[in-house]
Backbone:
């Protein structure tokens, strides 16, 4: 099979981009191609002024896609080309049938500056966890920054996907059974930013959740010294989005400084 035309990819040619991601999904990229992709993406990331990979995770229906949609708008406003990967590990069971419902970004489909791709597991979770970081690197080479990775739930597979982003956002909502006690293991540790969404529905519940999160953070300080901010949003009313963007930038600056 012909190798990826990296020059065409770097020019942002959409068919080359889509084809490369498909080959990554199907495990068809050679070791050499993978190494080249990895190298190029890393080199670009170190010079890019835009945020890199942003992960958004949380229980079904908390508002991840609605928030992603608004973040895409914010970043487009500053002229960036934005990539979106909607990852659905549950598609191992459902065959990906739900995925269409999960993407609420139709308005961006006509914008050539936004590339949206849904990735379902097709019965093989390990493949998905591998293909997602490759896809985000391919997008980076094609000039997309940031790349937003939306993934459903906070189980082990999502944590796996989130290991390959620069900033992980965990979205919660009041009254969604999302209190701290019931939050699945691993969630507090992976979050760089917490969003409490749907505050328009239950401000009191949201405030309670916020207090709980802050308390639990006081109990377990992270090794790197970063304290995940807790941001209250209503994606419906577009409240809190600029704060989220500011927090993303702050976290990525923090990580950049960390790297030396
Ligand atoms: N009241 C209220 N509804 C919201 C808010 N944000 C999202 N919703 C609604 O919640 C529903 C689910 O939103 P999505 O953005 O699809 O949630 P999601 O987390 O991406 O869902 P899955 O991908 O299926 O897990 C939709 O009907 C949204 O309109 C909000 O801030 N307030
Ligand atoms: Mg969604």
Residues:
């Amino acid at each position: 099979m012909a190798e990826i035309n990296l020059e065409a990819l770097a020019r942002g040619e959409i068919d080359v981009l889509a084809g490369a991601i498909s080959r990554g999904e199907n495990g068809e990229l050679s070791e050499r191609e993978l190494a080249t992709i990895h190298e190029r993406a890393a080199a670009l990331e170190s010079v890019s002024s835009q945020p890199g990979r942003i992960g958004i995770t949380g229980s079904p229906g908390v508002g991840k896609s609605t928030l992603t949609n608004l973040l895409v708008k914010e970043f487009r406003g500053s002229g960036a080309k934005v990539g979106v990967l909607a990852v659905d590990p549950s598609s191992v069971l459902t065959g990906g049938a739900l995925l269409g419902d999960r993407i609420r970004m139709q308005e961006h489909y006509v914008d050539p500056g936004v590339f949206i791709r849904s990735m379902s597991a097709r019965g093989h979770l390990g493949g998905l966890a591998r293909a997602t970081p490759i896809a985000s690197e391919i997008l980076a080479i094609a000039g997309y920054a940031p790349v937003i990775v939306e993934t459903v739930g906070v189980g082990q597979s999502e944590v796996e996907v989130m290991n390959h982003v620069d900033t992980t956002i965990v979205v919660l909502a009041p009254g969604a059974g999302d209190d701290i006690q019931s939050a699945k293991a691993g969630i507090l540790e992976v979050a760089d930013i917490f969003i409490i969404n749907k505050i328009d529905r239950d401000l009191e519940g949201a405030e309670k959740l916020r207090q709980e999160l802050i308390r639990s953070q006081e109990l377990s300080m992270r090794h790197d010294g970063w304290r995940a901010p807790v941001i209250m949003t209503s994606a419906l009313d577009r409240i809190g989005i600029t704060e989220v963007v500011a927090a993303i930038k702050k976290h990525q600056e923090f990580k950049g400084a960390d790297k030396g």
